[in-house]
Specification:
The complex is a heterotrimer of chains A (667), B (181) and C (290).
Chain A (H helix, E strand, L loop, with lengths): L3 H6 L6 H23 L6 E7 L8 E7 L2 E7 L11 H10 L9 E4 L2 E4 L2 H19 L4 E5 L9 H11 L4 E2 L7 H11 L3 E3 L6 E5 L3 H4 L4 H6 L6 E5 L12 E3 L6 H14 L9 H11 L4 H8 L3 H13 L3 E5 L1 H4 L4 H14 L3 H4 E3 L27 H7 L7 H6 L5 E5 L3 H4 L3 H10 L2 E5 L12 E3 L21 H11 L11 H8 L8 E2 L10 H5 L21 E5 L15 H4 L6 E4 L1 H6 L7 E5 L4 E8 L7 E4 L29 E7 L1
Parallel strand pairs in A: 6-7, 6-14, 9-10, 9-12, 10-11, 14-15, 15-16, 18-22, 19-21
Antiparallel strand pairs in A: 1-2, 2-3, 4-5, 4-16, 8-13, 13-17, 18-23, 19-22, 20-21, 20-23
Chain B lengths: L1 H12 L19 H5 L5 H5 L5 E2 L13 E2 L11 H5 L12 H7 L3 E5 L15 H5 L7 E4 L4 E4 L9 H5 L7 E5 L4
Chain C lengths: L1 H13 L2 H5 L5 H9 L9 E2 L5 E3 L2 E3 L2 H11 L3 H17 L2 H5 L3 H18 L12 H16 L4 H4 L1 H15 L5 H14 L4 H6 L1 H9 L5 E5 L9 H5 L20 H5 L5 E5 L12 H7 L1
Antiparallel strand pairs in C: 1-2, 2-3, 4-5
Chain lengths: 667, 181, 290
């Protein structure tokens, strides 16, 4: 009986409950479909070896993929870096999958961007570059590469493209990183060199923090602190490496040259010079160093006279000594001369031959023959910085804003460079960029620079290219494909017949690696004829920073030391890295803070003669009492709103990131 | 028959003392009290931004369906969203400020196997745990010729980020749940 | 009301898709979730379909609350969280079962399977047990909670199972044994007793019956329209008899009887079970006229 009457008498009426049931079934069905087609398949596990290119350490990494997607990154035990990967390398996983990635080329239409197909975007850029070249000459075009391209084999091909276009204006990070050091050392010894830490009994780390700048080798630095070895760290901040040092000197930023001359004076006057030096050179150097008595050095640098004497003795008695100097020495107006003075110390105390390895010709510009002829037009900055130009064969990008304002530069292509955040004098650069006829930015993300661009071309990140070939970056092109396509669109197909960099390098034949060799100490040059010819002092003089502390700006700003979290302006899109530094901090000594009524964690304004920026205060006894340390690369707290291109190093054109007069106050 | 079923269920579910404790999400009440309050609703896992909370159906009837963490697989980023999502207070609401978390959260204790740890066993250079730790210099310090980790139990909240970061070839760190919760 | 119930039973677990897969998002899955417009902020909706927090308001399932009270004792959180649902059930009776429980789909599936089997020639049994069986199950769960501190109810009470196992399956992309409990219940419904789980085994049903014992909202029959066709009795899953005005706390107010009545004699409303009778001729009067 059940069933029959219902069918005869009652028609099926659709009720709200039926709708509900249908919705539930639909929902469950959708979930099931989702599971069937897209659920996590842990089945296939695969590992791939590669190299992390987020910084110049190039740590070997092993990527583990599960179901074709990146699951984790581990260090490669079999690589030079012995399995090390830093916080940023781990954070790379989040960059790969980040929703902030750009997936199509973007072209500006008014105040917003419109997505465009790749071929159309490349054609548009080529068309506009050629038009600008025709109207204003080839030198009105500049290419600038950023941090991911340090020692990257593609850069010679970007140079090749510039040569084909007829512009001399290729700039790289050498405009503000490491070149001062390379030049300074080469001016003293004929080639750049690198200290081999393990060979030294005394290791000096001067203005560098290997804990962050050379993570995979940090333990070697720490090992140098074990008796009978000595680790001397010279840094206005008690960094992680300074915490291990047997001696830590904290000079005022920008006074390292005075300290170096003070040490040289002791080496010379106390007859501690360990190698034969032409007497005239030694006499010149002695005269130069004479005023820098320990008492005078203490007055200039705040390093105690006692420490100066102790260190000079250790360097000469506890050898062999190796000296590793870093950006802390380079980012000043007197950078090159200071590096030279330090290099002379390295030589005079007898450590160079035993511990340094020459690194000649680090940039090999060769690309397959025939190479386009180099333009004869001088690059931007070449006349003002002839020594820099001779070494680097590049433009000095600190003079780009002036060139734009003068109408000499009309088109700028930023390849992996976030110049609007990382170049000194952001305000001026930002205003100058408005005057450009064309700004093209190549980047995986819509950076602060990309936001101002006329065309944005999304590039892949290193992991998406061979050999890692990790899934990610849909719609983005690898840099080599991008550059070669642009070259062909510009009409240089005969010069760029390859599809990939690998193909091009294969056509080039021959290794790029430069051979390392022990350094010959007889190459020591104390009085540089090259510098004198360029109108600069031939001896390693010290000049105080021109932006000196004053009553209005009594403290010294150090902008942009390497931090544990982030690499320049990168990794902000990685939550795990942001968690380690959620806010930009201005670090200062508690004494300096209390005098200004600033407590730990307070919002503060840091001011220089250029501008002011808000940070959050972190009080630490590790900071020199006259110093304020701020990080760079933060869009919301741009340290380069505090800097400008006044007081550039006259030899290298480097900006004085780490010695600007400043004031700090509660906001 | 019903009585037999009831009886066996009681036996199966009666809390036992000698068994390994599960690593619970942060803010968890002590063992025993936690299982009483947890209604197996999955909300903590729903809000977890890194998917570190997992549930289990059949391992042990007593805490079947309760949330736990597998330290070597995924660590807790200490966002405290789970403590805020828990409807019954099995996970007590906790502020996500790192200095508060340091005081209030003790998920477990770190245990290092030096034979597997790359720097300590001289197999390589690492420091992944140190970089992952939210309290570097307090919960983990570095020592030795290859700067291997030294764990300070009294300063460790047991988040297992170190354990997760430890390379696949080593997996030298485990987090052991403690009775205190 | 309908929108809310769809929201709760279906979209709740699915709403977490976007965030569940977060930084390790599977392209296709995340796209599916977005396409289904399911990127709900956890602040909006959490824990559906049991222990829901919607727009900040905590609605604790009464079964969870009862189990907690026995296992852990009363706390403000538990009592406050349980209040909304308890009040609603006290007013409207066992309506959760009729409108919001994810098991609704399974009842319909069970009935459809039984009809299919019947058409194929095998009539599935429809055994009846004591109407109080569910109360025994409920008592057992609560007693176990009190004695051992263990929570047994969430392991097989459908809203809890769905709320936990469905997102868990999405999370880890693996088939889940927990949902197997529901499969067992469905088998019981098909092979032993129609809607048997809801009738005899569900602790939630029992608890709602207790709380909603005095609910004034019931199925009302207008006798003048009723032709005694028994359609309403036949269609009811839960052993109610609207035709004879015998509906008790076990009625889930699902309105199937209301929908199926050919003369629209039934409504769900407050009031006395038997509506006032409009005077009509008696059968003797009718035959006298003929």
């Amino acid at each position: 009986m059940p069933g029959a009457p219902t069918r005869l008498i009652a028609k099926k009426k659709w009720t709200r409950r039926d709708l509900l049931k249908l919705a539930q079934i639909g929902g469950v069905g959708a979930v099931g479909a989702g599971l069937a087609f897209g659920g996590r398949a842990d089945a296939v596990v695969e590992t791939r070896r590669g190299v992390c290119r987020l910084c110049t350490m190039h740590c070997g990494i092993v990527a583990t993929l599960k179901g074709g997607k990146l699951a984790r990154i581990d260090g490669d035990l079999k690589s030079n870096t012995s399995g090390f990967v830093c916080l940023n390398g781990q954070g790379y996983r989040e960059l790969l999958a980040s929703r902030a990635r750009i997936h199509t080329p973007l072209v500006r239409k008014g105040d917003h961007f419109e997505p465009v197909e790749w071929e159309a975007a490349i054609a548009l850029v080529a068309e506009r570059l050629l038009a600008i070249r025709a109207k204003k000459g080839p030198a009105s075009i500049a290419f600038e590469t950023g941090w991911p391209f340090v020692r990257h084999p593609l850069v010679p091909y970007i140079q090749r493209l510039c040569d084909a276009l007829g512009t001399p204006n290729l700039a790289t990070v050498a405009s503000l990183c490491e070149a001062t050091g390379r030049m300074g050392r080469a001016l003293v010894h004929g080639s750049n060199y690198w200290p081999m830490m393990q060979k030294a009994k005394t290791l000096v780390i001067w203005g560098a923090n290997p804990a962050h700048a050379a993570g995979p080798y940090f333990h070697q630095v720490v090992a140098a602190a074990k008796s009978p070895r000595a680790l001397i760290v010279i840094d206005p901040v008690r960094t992680e490496v300074a915490a291990h040092a047997t001696h830590h000197l904290m000079p005022r930023p920008g006074t390292d040259g005075a300290l170096a001359l003070g040490i040289l004076r002791i080496l010379i006057e106390e007859d501690r010079v360990k190698i034969p030096v032409p007497p005239s050179d030694l006499a010149d150097l002695g005269r130069l160093a004479a005023p820098y008595t320990p008492a005078e050095v203490e007055r200039l640098t705040t390093v105690s006279a006692q420490q100066v004497q102790t260190v000079a003795r250790i360097l000469s008695e506890n050898g062999p000594t190796a000296i590793w100097d870093g950006l802390g020495v380079e980012h000043h107006e007197n950078g090159v001369q200071t590096v030279r003075a330090i290099s002379v110390i390295y030589s005079l105390c007898g450590g160079l031959e035993a511990t340094a390895e020459a690194r000649p010709g680090e940039i090999d510009w060769h690309t397959p023959e025939p190479m386009p002829p180099r333009p004869t037009i001088p690059a931007i900055g070449a006349e003002e910085f002839p020594v820099f130009h001779a070494f680097q064969r590049q433009a000095q990008k600190q003079r780009f804003p002036a060139a734009i304002e003068a109408g000499a530069l009309s088109a700028l292509v930023l390849v992996g460079s976030n110049a609007l955040l990382t170049a000194p004098g952001s305000a001026r650069l930002r205003a100058a960029v408005d005057q450009l006829d064309l700004l093209v930015v190549v980047d995986p993300f819509l950076t602060a620079s990309a936001e101002q661009a006329d065309v944005v071309l999304p590039a892949t990140t290193f992991g998406e290219d061979a050999p890692l070939s990790l899934p990610g970056g849909e719609g983005a092109w690898p840099d080599d494909k991008l550059i070669f396509s642009l070259a062909r669109a510009l009409g240089f197909a005969s010069s760029f017949p390859w599809q990939t960099l690998e193909e091009a390098e294969h056509a080039r034949r021959g290794p790029r690696k430069s051979k390392a060799a022990p350094l010959d100490p007889s190459t020591l040059t104390i009085r540089s004829a090259v510098l004198e010819k360029a109108g600069q002092p031939g001896l390693p003089v010290w000049t105080p920073p021109s932006d000196a502390p004053s009553p209005e700006f009594p403290l010294i700003l150090v902008a942009g030391p390497r931090t544990r979290a982030f690499i320049n302006s990168q990794l902000r899109e990685a939550p795990s890295v942001r968690a380690k530094m959620p806010r930009p901090l201005a670090r200062l000594h508690p004494a300096a803070a209390t005098a200004r009524g600033i407590a730990d964690g307070d919002p503060v304004i840091v001011r220089t003669k250029v501008g002011s920026v808000q940070f959050w205060a972190e009080l630490s006894g590790d900071i020199h009492p006259e110093v304020v340390v701020v990080p760079h690369g933060w869009a919301e707290a741009n340290a380069n709103a505090l800097t400008d291109v006044s007081g550039l190093d006259p030899i290298s054109g480097f900006p004085a990131f780490r010695s600007r007069a400043c004031q700090i106050a509660r906001s | 028959m019903g009585l037999a079923a009831f009886g066996s269920l009681t036996w199966a579910l009666y809390p036992r003392t000698a068994r390994a404790l599960r690593l619970r999400p942060p803010g968890a009440r002590p063992p025993g009290e936690f299982e009483r309050l947890c209604i197996r609703c999955f909300r903590c896992a729903e809000v977890c931004p890194v998917a570190c909370i997992r549930f289990d159906t059949l391992a042990d009837l007593r805490d079947t369906g309760t949330p736990y963490l597998l330290p070597k697989d995924k660590g807790c980023t200490l966002c405290m969203a789970c403590t805020e999502a828990c409807p019954t207070g099995a996970l007590a609401p906790t502020s996500p400020k790192l200095d508060r978390v340091f005081v209030e959260v003790r998920m477990g204790e770190p245990i290092l196997d030096k034979r597997r740890c790359l720097p300590w066993s001289n197999q390589g250079v690492c420091r992944a745990c140190y970089y992952a730790c939210p309290y570097p210099g307090q919960a983990i310090t570095l020592a030795g010729p290859r700067q291997g980790p030294v764990f300070h139990v009294e300063s460790c909240v047991g988040c297992a980020l170190c354990s997760e970061a430890c390379p696949t070839s080593a997996k030298a760190i485990d987090i052991r749940a403690t009775r205190e919760g | 009301m309908l929108a809310l119930s769809i929201l709760i039973t279906v979209l709740g677990p699915l709403a977490q898709l976007e965030r569940l897969h977060g930084a390790e998002s599977d392209g296709r899955f995340a796209t599916l979730a977005r396409w289904l417009h399911l990127s709900l902020d956890p602040g909006l909706l959490l824990g559906a379909p049991w222990t829901i927090r919607i727009l900040g308001l905590e609605i604790l399932d009464p079964v969870a609350a009862a189990s907690l009270l026995c296992a852990a004792g009363p706390t403000t959180k538990i009592v406050l969280g349980a209040l909304p649902a308890v009040v609603l059930v006290a007013l409207f009776g066992r309506f959760f079962c009729g409108w919001l429980c994810p098991y609704i789909v399974l009842i319909a599936t069970g009935n459809a399977l039984r009809a299919l089997l019947a058409r194929l020639g095998w009539r599935a049994p429809d055994r009846s047990f004591s109407k109080n069986t569910a109360f025994v199950v409920l008592a057992g769960c609560l007693l176990l909670a009190a004695l051992t501190g263990s929570q047994l109810a969430p392991l097989f009470y459908p809203p809890a199972v769905v709320a936990r196992e469905l997102p868990r399956a999405l999370y880890f992309g693996v088939p889940t044994l927990g949902l197997g409990v529901l499969g067992l219940a469905l088998s019981f419904d098909v092979l032993v007793s129609r809607a048997g789980f809801c009738r005899y085994l569900c602790p939630g049903g029992a608890l709602f019956r207790l709380i909603g014992w005095r609910s004034k909202v019931r199925v009302l029959r207008e006798e003048s329209k009723c032709t005694d066709c028994t359609a309403c009795d036949v269609v009811c899953n839960l052993l109610q008899s609207p035709m004879t005005d015998q509906t008790d706390s076990g009625c889930e107010r699902c309105a199937k009887c209301v929908a199926v009545c050919p003369t629209r004699a039934l409504t769900i409303s407050t009031g006395h079970p038997r509506l006032p009778v409009v005077p009509t001729k008696t059968t003797e009067e009718v035959s006298a006229e003929r």
